[in-house]
Amino acid sequence: MSAAFAVTSLHKRFRTQFGRTESVALDGVDLEVPRGEAFGLIGPNGAGKTTFIKCLLGISHPDSGSVELLGSRPQDPRSRARVGYLPERLTLPGAWTPRAFLASVTRLKRLPPERSTIDSLLERVGLTDAANRKIRGFSKGMRQRLGLAATLVGAPDLLVLDEPTDGVDPLGRVEIRQLLGGELARGATLFINSHLLSETERICTRIGILSRGRLVRAGPLEVLTAVHQRWRVRFADGSAPAAEALVALGFEPAESDAWEIAAADAPALNRALDGARAAGALLVELERASRDLEDVLTEALAAGAA
Amino acid sequence: MTSFAVALDLLREAAARRWFLALGLALTGLLMLLLTSLRLEVVDGALAASRLFGQPLYHSIQAADVALRPVFLVASQIVFWGGLAFGVLSCADFAPALLSPGRIEHLLSLPVRRWELLAGTFLGVLALALAGAVYASTGLVLVLGAKTGVWTGWPVVSAALAAVAFGSVYAGMLAVTVWVRSAALSAATGAALVVLGLLATHRTTLLDLMGQGVGRALFASVTGVVPPLGKLADAAGALASSAPLAPGGLLRLLAGTVAFAGALLAVAMWRFDRRDF
What does the alpha-carbon distance between residue A286 and residue A277 come to, in Å, rounded to a whole number? Predict the structure, then answer.
């Protein structure tokens, strides 16, 4: 599968007007995102996430390194024509209606601004009722939805979304997740930069952690959150032997009446499970023990700081 | 084509601003006032007396087009200098708004080249200036034509000259904004260019009054580059009043003004292309 984008050894420093180095925003980032994937970039404030996106789209110029966007340079308008970008704080023309704004974006994307297409986009983001209202009267969530509609103009191959659910109510977030799911099903690539780790977990299949301008972790979500050599098991209600017996077999109590066990390999795991079954326990659930993204982020940042 | 789309968006944005609606209403009101109040009487193809709001302009009997010269001359000066002042104040915010955080990032992510964005902004403002100048001058031509039977298109050409002059001023405002995003600085640059343009008009006289030194050299170099707006205004007045005008002189003036605007735009585009947002 070809890459939606690939960056190699990306460096970016911000300097004062007199050329003195002020801060390092990106410090040798390498990242390749295959087409059709949902990738989430997370990290603390000031980690360089937005700078990364700006370098990716040609909005900022990297000091060194290379960027390939949909098989071309980001400066090539033809590659940007296949990208939909939602900035973190999109400034919208307050005196315009959503229809006029989307028509403008459509024209700038060199597409015919057909009313039916624009109305369909407004419907997808739930703004049909506000189609003729001035944008200046919109709430933050409505503005975010309109920004999202603008990114969908022309059915782009790559969606780059900086905090897509920022300011959106919980129901709206569900709708946006469904909408992004639809885009993924269409074959689009999603690149999401979000502070909301739970949102990122729900949408993305691969995660990258950026800290101090460096990509300290990147990989599939289940691999990043997996805890090596630990398994979580659940026994049928009433079937579990006394806790002491399970503890003696190496099981440790976990939350929600589950148990966890460390096992170096499959035979060791099965020996422990056989012991529990011999003691009368009926196994109903077995999975790799995992952590949530917050734990992964905390650990990665601590390792990066060390 | 993309530049035209950007220019069209700027015109839509301008249409939503109260400043421009007020200008349109004010111009229309003024033209209506002239249409209903101006008393000009033409006898046998000649103007017996031209009276503006009851006050005689000329006492001698003259051909109508000659008698109307001062009216067209004054009108062209009002359109020229008034248009420049209004343009500097009302258009100062367009480029800073274009470069505002959250908007410029979105625009740059679209398949638009950076120079197209700047060119579109410049074209939009130029179209706005031209539309205002042409609307005012055409209205005046229609009112005076209906009153006197003298129909001339030269005041409209003269107004177009005012728009070209404003274009050179706005190119400077745009160039400064690419470095520092500030509507106040943009307006100050426009005002400074208008003043420098006036000084450039009287460059030779002023240089004669100055002693040798760095200040004189600086003044000579700056006013040698800035278009002499006073001369452009005189040419616009001469065109509007159908007075004799050396065609070569006007062409040189126009070429210099366009070259000045083009150079500033080129510098602005060079800087804009390298800037991070």
Answer: 13
A83 contacts on B by Cβ (under 8 Å): 109
- Asked if A108 lies within 8 A of B113 by C-beta distance, the reply is no
pLDDT in tens, A46-104: 889 999 999 999 999 999 999 999 999 999 999 999 999 999 889 999 889 999 999 99
| pLDDT tens profile A175-234 | 888 999 999 999 999 999 987 788 888 889 999 999 889 999 888 888 887 777 788 899
Is B51 part of a structural domain of the chain? no
Please give the ipTM for the structure prediction.
0.80
Residues of chain B with Cβ-Cβ distance to A100 below 8 Å are 12
- The burial class, CB within 10 Å (0-12 / 13-18 / 19+), for A197 is middle
Q: Tell me which chain B residues have a C-beta less than 8 angstroms from the C-beta of A160.
A: 109
Q: Chains A and B: how many Cβ contacts under 8 Å?
A: 74
Interface-testing mutation among B4, B18, B99, B109, with chain A (most A C-beta atoms within 10 A): B109
Assign B110 a pLDDT band (cuts: 50, 70, 90): very high
| Cβ within 8 Å, pair B105-A87 | yes
Q: Tell me, yes or no, whether B116 lies in a domain.
A: yes
Smallest Cα distance from B21 to chain A, Å: 14
- Chain A residue with CA closest to B103: the answer is A91
**Could you tell me the residue range of the domain that residue B79 belongs to?**
2-37+68-274
Establish if B96 belongs to a structural domain. yes
Q: Residues A257-279: what's their mean pLDDT?
A: 89
Residue B47's pLDDT is 58
Q: How many domains would you assign to chain B?
A: 1
Q: What is the pTM of this model?
A: 0.82
Q: Is residue B153 included in any domain, yes or no? A: yes
**Phi–psi pair at B62, nearest 5 degrees:** -135, 165
Band (pLDDT 50/70/90 cuts) for residue A1 is: low
Distance between CA atoms of residues B7 and A121, nearest Å:
25
| Chain B environment of A95 (Cβ under 8 Å) | 13, 16-17
Q: Best of A76, A79, A107, A160 to disrupt the B interface by mutation (most B CBs within 10 Å)?
A: A107
Alpha carbon of A232 to those of A205, A271, B122: distances in Å?
22, 15, 65
Strand partners for B124: none
- Quick one: CA dihedral B5, B11, B15, B16, positive or negative? positive
